[in-house]
Structures are given as structure tokens and as C-alpha cells.
Amino acid sequence: FQEEGYLVIPNFFENYQELLKRSKELLENFDIQTHPKTKFTCKDDNHVGDDYFLNSGDKIRFFFEEDAFDEEGKLKKPKEKSINKIGHGLHYHDKVFKDFTTQEKLKNLAKDIGFKDCRVLQSMVICKQPEIGGEVSPHIDSTFLYTNPPSAIGFWFALEDCTTKNGCMLFAPGTHKRHKVSKRFVRNKESTGTTFLRSTNEDEKKWFGGEFTQIGDEKPEPAEDDYVVAETKAGSLVLIHGEVWHKSTHNFSDKSRFIYTFHMIEGNNEYDEKNWLQPTAEHPFMKLYDQ
Ligand code: FE2
Q1: pLDDT score for 262
Q2: Do residues 159 and 23 lie in contact, with contact meaning Cβ atoms separated by under 8 Å?
Q3: What's the 142 CA to ligand 1 centre distance in angstroms?
Q4: How far is the centre of ligand 1, averaged over its atoms, from the C-alpha of 141 (Å)?
Q5: What pLDDT score does 116 carry?
């Protein structure tokens, strides 16, 4: 993990069928009539930054695949086959995911990694639906969940087999040592939406009052050749360093690719107030254990 910036741990958990079943129940049960039809995409400057997304940190909300709708704005498939992800507060509200997230094995792992005041945030089920499951463009997670110094680590659990056919992960090993945070996904000044903020863009820095903590030099993004495929069996855990570059491809196959994921951050590090995800009075970031 320290060398490569990610680690696949096969057979980490056995109850993936239970988590998969619960994910599918959530998809069956949500009310599409009252849904604002928010799409989720990781492409630059194309985030749908409305209230439904911005205030989802402590709720269970549903985000559509980008290709879920036809030209007339109608769903091409049933709603349960149209959702890209469920997020971002499953660990607060859903018993199955809360119990899973707070299990002893994960607490011990967090301590082994070196977390002192470990906080869990941004839990989500990513469905990557058959045929329309969207790609995730290359990124590092600290762009989205910035602490000073950076501390985010992704915990990524395969609920189904993830292969090159249904859009498994690809990592650029070792990039966490060379590439530092040079782009941030932040709330805009009015907190009405989101934007990317680049450390190299003087206008963007000025617009945000010149505040941008960058550690190390800007490096170009990794090349295509730098990435290695990480196929994972259901039951695998993948640990993802906050500064390692990764991505995943579109799912054109007839098999879904359900995964559950959340992040841990160090509660003793300053959590940046510009980050898209903010704690609320009702739901501060969940403490995984007492220090
Ligand atoms: Fe990521």
C-alpha cells in the first residue's frame, strides 16, 4: 500500500450478497416521482451542483447514470437499472451499511494504517449499470476530500466481480509519491454549486482569495501506459491512497458492477471548508472509534 498507493485484499469480507441485496432494495424502493433527476458525472466542470447533490452528505440519495435518459429526457431502462450511485450518508442511516462500516475489523485496519481520530465520510454504492455504466475519469480522491495535510483513504468493497468487461478499476502505481494535489473540487462562493479550482490558474486562485494549499510541484497526469488493471472478485477490499491516480472505464457489458465505498480522513487534520462535502450540525463526520 505504501509503495504502490493501493492494495487489493481478496476475501476481506463474506457478506457481499447481503450488501448487494440491500443495495437493490434501496433501488427498488426509492420514489422516482419526487426525484429531481440528478445525474452524476466525474467529468471536469460537469458536476450537477444542485442542492440534491450538495446536501446529500448525510442522506440517502440517488444519482442517475449520465446515459440513463434518451433525447426526450425519458429513462431508457427501469429506474433500478438507471442509477449510477446511492450516496452519501448510507453509513448514518442504513442499518446494513452502518453495521458493515463500523465493524471491528475495519476499526482495527484503520488503526493499523495509522489513523488517530478516524472519521468516516462519503459512503456510497456505485452500481455501474449494464450497458450504460459511466466511466470515471482519472483523478485522485484528495481533490474531492481535502484535509491539511492530506489524509483521505478510500475503502472500496467489491459486491460483485469487477473485470475489464464491466468497468473495473485501474491504478497508476506509485503516483501518490510524485503527484500532489493541484486541483480541488470545491463549493462555489455562493455555495449554490461546485467547481474545480486549479493551483496553476491565477484567476481561480484570486477568485477564491488566493487560498490554495498545494504540496509539491505540479506534474502532468499519468500516461495511459502508467495504469494497471485491478480486477477484483466479490468480497475484495481495495485500499486507495488519497493521492494515487485511478480511473475506471464505461460498462458496456450486460453485467452490473456494484461496489460499496467510503472514505476515512484524519479528524485531527484541518478539514477544508471549501470541500464540496461539509459536515452538518446534526451529522458531524462519524467517529469510527474513540481516540
Ligand atoms: Fe476515486
Answers
A1: 98
A2: yes
A3: 9
A4: 5
A5: 97
Q: 150 alpha carbon to ligand 1 midpoint, in Å?
A: 14
98 or 185, greater pLDDT: 98
Verdict on whether the full-model pTM lies above 0.70: yes
Give the model confidence (pLDDT) of 225-278 as tens digits.
999 999 999 999 999 999 999 999 999 999 999 999 999 999 999 998 889 999
Distance, CA 137 to ligand 1 centroid (Å)?
9
Q: How far is the CA of 246 from the centre of ligand 1 (A)?
A: 6
182 is written with which cell numbers? Answer: 493541484
- What integer pLDDT is reported at residue 13 of this predicted model? 98
Give 33 Cα–ligand 1 centroid separation in angstroms: 30
CA distance readout (Å), 209 to 55, 188, 197, 203, 270: 24, 12, 12, 10, 18
Dump the DSSP string for 70-125. Answer: -TTS-BSS-GGGTEEEEEEBHHHH-HHHHHHHT-HHHHHHHHHHT-SSEEEEEEEE
Angle at 107 between CA 62 and CA 289, to 5 degrees: 90
Whole-number Å distance between alpha carbons of 47 and 247: 17
Q: What cell numbers appear for 265 in the block? A: 480522513
* Residue 219: C-alpha distances to residues 42, 179, 222 (Å): 20, 6, 9
Burial class (CB in 10 A: 0-12, 13-18, 19+), 42: middle
* Distance from Cα 151 to the centre of ligand 1, integer Å: 14
Distance 201 CA to ligand 1 centre (A): 23
Distance between CA 42 and CA 47 in Å, rounded?
7
